[in-house]
């Protein structure tokens, strides 16, 4: 029987922390049979998370998931710091006694945990770490060369977990539908779970983040010539700005797409840190990129999940007036307006 997934999102499926589960349901093509979240049991995924595209039942525990035919439990939560939460341990051990594999994108590697490794051996199941780093990484090439004939579009943001991956995937799929040879370049565990390839750059030694991004561009160039690089963190985030900067320099984008959660005024994790006006954020990213390769922000991708339809439209119009750039929400309204702006910027470089 082919692999069938249950997404473990206990207590958090309705929160942005469950973005790995959300992303897999919206964009992945793997067989997902259910979500595990006892606080939402009896509902369906689409009733809790609109726009998920796939609707699967939500069950109370991994026993119920196995009864539905799940063969692997994927941890669908991306907690701050990426550590294995102690409350999950009992559930993971129970998962293995039921004969199911476990897949995770945590910084706490499953295969480094002696208790989990011993249980996996005892019950004959697999532990898979999506965030493990490949061997042989280093700093970028000294001449900063990159494959010829490609263009790189990079999503960047004003904060974490606000939709950079979603926007990149939507733009990539829409470009492909228009006949472009587009490729989504996964730089985090959720993207890897969806696409089946990539490097979780936030798990890489700091000195090698840019080199890991360079390697991803090299591989992406073997798959297509219009690369949409998944953004990570934010230059405004005190905890995660390092990976943002390394990825920005290593990917050497030609065009940037700035993601923003409409209505957000302070960093979600560091609430004493305000988010500057968007024109200042645009200037910050363009200046930072220019240290290696000049890149302009072509448009703004808004996440309007906190607003109703009328509020979302007002936010889009106000952002366009403030920045002079096209703005839209790719989930609420589709990606076409933003893609038009991206392709116009890309084609102007030819």
Explain this structure to me?
The protein has 350 residues and is α/β, with parallel strands linked by helices. The chain folds into two domains: 125 residues, NAD(P)-binding Rossmann-like Domain (Rossmann fold), CATH 3.40.50.720; 198 residues, Rossmann fold (3-Layer(aba) Sandwich). The protein is built from 13 helices and twelve strands. The strands form two sheets. A six-stranded parallel beta sheet has the order 3-2-1-4-5-6, with helices on both faces. A six-stranded parallel beta sheet has the order 8-9-7-10-11-12, sandwiched between helices. Helix 1 packs parallel to helix 7, helix 4 packs parallel to helix 5 and helix 8 packs across helix 9. The longest helix has 15 residues. The protein is globular, with a radius of gyration of 20 Å. The termini are far apart.
């Amino acid at each position: 029987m082919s692999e069938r997934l249950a997404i473990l999102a206990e207590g958090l499926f309705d929160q942005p922390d469950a973005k790995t589960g959300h992303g897999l349901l919206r964009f992945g093509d793997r067989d997902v049979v259910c979500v595990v979240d006892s606080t939402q049991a009896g509902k369906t995924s689409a009733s809790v998370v609109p726009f998920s595209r796939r609707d699967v039942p939500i069950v109370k525990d991994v026993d119920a998931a196995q009864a539905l035919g799940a063969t692997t439990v994927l941890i669908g939560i991306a907690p701050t710091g990426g550590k294995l939460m102690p409350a999950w341990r009992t559930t993971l051990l129970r998962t293995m006694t039921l004969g199911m594999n476990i897949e995770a994108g945590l910084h706490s590697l499953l295969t480094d945990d002696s208790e989990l490794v011993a249980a996996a051996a005892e019950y004959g199941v697999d532990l898979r770490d999506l965030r493990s780093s490949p061997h042989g990484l280093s700093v970028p090439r000294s001449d900063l060369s990159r494959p010829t004939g490609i263009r790189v579009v990079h999503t960047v943001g004003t904060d974490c977990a606000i939709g950079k991956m979603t926007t990149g995937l939507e733009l990539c799929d829409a470009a492909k539908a228009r006949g472009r040879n587009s490729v989504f370049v996964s730089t985090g565990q959720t993207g890897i779970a969806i696409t089946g390839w990539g490097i979780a750059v936030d798990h890489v030694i700091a000195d090698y983040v840019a080199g890991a991004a360079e390697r991803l561009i090299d591989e992406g160039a073997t798959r297509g010539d219009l690369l949409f690089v998944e953004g990570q963190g934010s230059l405004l985030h005190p905890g995660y700005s390092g990976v943002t900067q390394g990825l920005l320099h290593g990917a050497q984008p030609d065009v940037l797409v700035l993601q923003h959660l409409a209505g957000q005024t302070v960093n979600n994790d560091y609430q004493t840190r305000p988010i500057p006006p968007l024109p200042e954020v645009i200037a910050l990213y363009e200046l930072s990129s220019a240290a290696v390769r000049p890149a302009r922000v072509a448009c703004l991708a808004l996440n309007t999940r906190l607003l109703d339809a009328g509020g979302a439209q007002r936010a889009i119009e106000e952002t366009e007036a403030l920045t002079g750039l096209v703005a839209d929400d790719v989930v609420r309204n589709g990606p076409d307006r933003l893609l038009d702006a991206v392709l116009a910027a890309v084609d102007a470089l030819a």
